[in-house]
Amino acid sequence: MQNMNDGEIVKQQYQNADKLNIRIMLHHKYSTNKTPFGDWIVSNYKIKPGSRVLELGCGTGDTWKEHLDLIDNEGLLILSDFSEGMLKTAKENLGEHSNVEYQVIDIQNIPYENDSFDVVVANMMLYHVPDLQKGLSEVARVLKESGTFYCATYGENGIIHYMEGLLKEYGLKDTTNKAFTLQNGEEILAGHFRRVRKLEREDGLAITNLEDMMDYIFSCTSITNVADLDRDVLREIFNNQMVDGVLHIPKEYGMFVCEK
After folding, report:
1. Beta pairing, strands 204-207 & 100-104
2. 120 near 140, Cβ under 8 Å?
3. Across the chain, how many H-helices and E-strands are there?
């Protein structure tokens, strides 16, 4: 199996939306919490009229699909990603709007003046940032004194952790990037923001079609040796875990709300 550093893995996974969409689909189809994760995230946003909002790592932009009304005509939403391919997908999903801009931006070097934004968002991406301290310093720099930073992430006891326990005899290991999780994120953020609150979401997966689970696994690079697995063997292992035709898998997701 070819060794890749984290930066190469991120580029491979997010050069376009294909693999990401596979993972999004599994959560959308089988989550026990029927409020979509993106809607739950947005429900915690406090965006005042006329606000300037910057999202870093916007991905496909789906989070905003039903929520662009949060940005009024006097406000501005800048959707950014380090991947041009992902940003292209976001633009196709959301279209052109007078109060929405699309920019290729690296969180480690945000090209805006100090105190530029009322709200900054960075969901499910901070664990990928090579120099996280620099990235968070940049967020704090461009955020206004009264501004809020929202950042969702995963915990260390979710889907991949579950699969590692189930498949350890096959040599699979959880290599999920734990640089920024629900367990350590509060301490990391406290060095840059005066107040940090953690919000945890209750959820899980109840999977009825194992082919969807197989597709999810083979879209991931956060489990070692996944490419070496036999799909039929893997399917049988998960089939043995099903109860009344349902495979139950834990999820651990949440977000931090930070005040400058």
Report:
1. unpaired
2. no
3. 9, 9
Q: How far apart are CA 219 and CA 227, in angstroms?
A: 10
Cα separation of the two ends of the chain: 44
Which burial class, exposed, middle or buried, applies to 90 when counting CB atoms under 10 A from its CB (0-12, 13-18, 19+)? buried
CATH placement of domain 6-22+33-156+177-203+251-259: 3.40.50.150
Length of the chain: 260
Q: Structural domain boundaries of the chain?
A: 6-22+33-156+177-203+251-259
The pLDDT value recorded for residue 17 is: 59
On whether the CB atoms of residues 225 and 171 are closer than 8 A, the answer is yes
What pairing do the DSSP bridges indicate for beta strands 52-55 and 117-121? parallel
- Considering the entire predicted model, what is its pTM? 0.84
